[in-house]
Structure formats: structure tokens, C-alpha cells
Amino acid sequence: MSRLRAFLAAHRAGTFCVVTFALTWAFWFATVYPAAIPLLQAGQNPLSGPTVTLFVGAGMFFPAIGVVLTRLLTGEGFRGAWVRPREFRRTWKYWVAGWFGPMLLVALGAVVFFLIFPGDFDPACPLFRETLNAQLAAAGQPPMDEAQAQALMGMQLALVLVCPLLNVVTCFGEEWGWRGYLLPHLMERHSATWGIVVVGVVWGLWHAPITVLGHNYGLDYPGWPVVGIFAMICFCTALSALFGWLTLRSGSCLPATFAHGALNGCVAAPALFMAVTPNPFIGPACTGIIGGLGLIAVAILCVVSLRRNPPRFLSNGRQQ
């Protein structure tokens, strides 16, 4: 047992990845797929059902479970866990950036997209109304008129502002794992840039079982599902730079948790204004190459910042 613990302790990053992938994928294949496949066979979005949504969301807790199990298996303990706020008088700006930054970047990418494709923009939000009325019709309810639909859309956009708080529990499950554990341990032997890229690739691959079912990129595209998995890896790598920068600069994974919650809450907002069905690989959502230009630009700036001014916190959470 001591030899096994010593081996696991010497490879904490790998141990965490194996544990997290095994638990999450086993859970998703046992719960999400049995609920999603009947929807897929019926010609519906396999991720649209409430049961599927619940199980996909529950999977977000497994990186945090992976942290706990890895720390127990390796005898590492829970000191320096990258959770509690550090030097808040100095680092508060990173918390603010985590809360509002993703919203601004999503909006910036959408503006760029609609400037390039002005014909795709429709402030009346026809696709939103069509989708909403189809859902109401399926439930046996009368359709909404334009004024009601606009009011509902306004409420949804306003709700984006509090999404970092609403999503904090589920997003903490991921951020404590990827940014609060894996990234710092990779940086014990490698640079911050290397750690950010590796975490992004690992994080993107971790999503593969739900990417196969259409998460973010749908099902109807050439090269399914490999192209979608590759796009998800690229998207997660860009996010890894931003979320990693917030974590390493603040000494806590909580600003990245808020940023993750903010992004999850607003990622689909630009599509509300589409006059045609959007292409998730292009935009206006930040999952696309044009809709994600703001995110990509900031990700590059974050990497440059960390290279020029290395982080002040070490893998155990102590300051240099």
C-alpha cells in the first residue's frame, strides 16, 4: 500500500485525471445515455430532456470528487486547496473580472459577428419566438405574442447578470478540479503556459461523451463527432487561459468559478438575435471562431501576462 501511495503521490496530476474521467464517464454513460438515446431515436435533441439536463449537470461535480479522492489516495491532505480568498484587498479586481468579464467577451464576439453578417441580425428574435411557441404548443398552451416574447427575452438577458451566483455550486465542482488542483500540480514541473494548454486539452476531452450527443455543436455537421470534440478542445483551451489566469492571479479558484457560471449563463444569448439558424462553429455564440474572437484575444493576453509576470502563488497555495 505504501508503494502504491508513493506512486500515486508522485503522479498526482495523472491520478486526478484517471479518477475524474473514470467516475464522470461511467456516470454519464450509465445515466445520460439511457435517457438521451430515446430522444435521439425520436428525432429530438438528445440533450433537451429534463432528466438528461439533470444528469449532465450532476457530472460537473465529479472533478471536485476527483480532487477529494486524489488527496485522500495520495495522503496529500487539504492544505493549500486554492479555495479560500487570498489578499482580497489586492485581488478583488479578479473577482470582478470573473463575474463580468465573460459577459463582455460574449457580447463583443456577438457584435463582431453581426458586423460581419448584418443580415443575420434581427432584434425581433424570430427564432426565439418560434422555439418558445413550439414548446408551448407541445404543452397545449397558446402561443405568446410579440410583446410577451420580448418581455420574456428581456428577463432572460437580465438574469445573465446573476448567473455567476446561480451557477456557483455546479461550476465550483469543475473549477476546483481543473484550476484548483490540476493546473497548480502541472505547474510544479512545467510553466503556466504549458499547464494552461494541457488543462484545456484534458478539459475538452472530458466533455467528449456529451459532445458526441450534441453539446455546444449539435449533431448535424460533417465529421461528427470528431470535429465537435476537436472544437470543444479548442474552446476549452481558450477558456483555460482566462480561468487559469484568474485563479493564478487571485490565489483562489472562486473567481474562475464565477467566470464559468457567467459564461454558462450567457453563452447562448447572442443566438436570441439570429434571423437564421446559427452555425455554432462560426457564431454568434463564443463557441464559434468569430463569436469567440473576444475570448481568443483575451486568452492570448492572459498567457502573455503570465509569461511576463509569473504567478505569485505556488501549487500548495503559498506565495512565492
UniProtKB/TrEMBL annotation:
Alphabetically ordered keywords of this record: Hydrolase, Membrane, Transmembrane, Transmembrane helix
The protein's Enzyme Commission number: 3.4.-.-
Matches recorded under InterPro entries: MmRce1-like, Rce1/LyrA-like_dom
Residue ranges of every copy of the CAAX prenyl protease 2/Lysostaphin resistance protein A-like domain listed in the record: 159-265
One MF annotation (Gene Ontology) recorded for this entry: hydrolase activity
Transmembrane region(s): 52-73, 94-117, 151-172, 192-212, 224-246, 258-276, 282-306
Organism: Adlercreutzia shanghongiae
Acetylation among keywords: no
Protein name as catalogued: CPBP family intramembrane glutamic endopeptidase
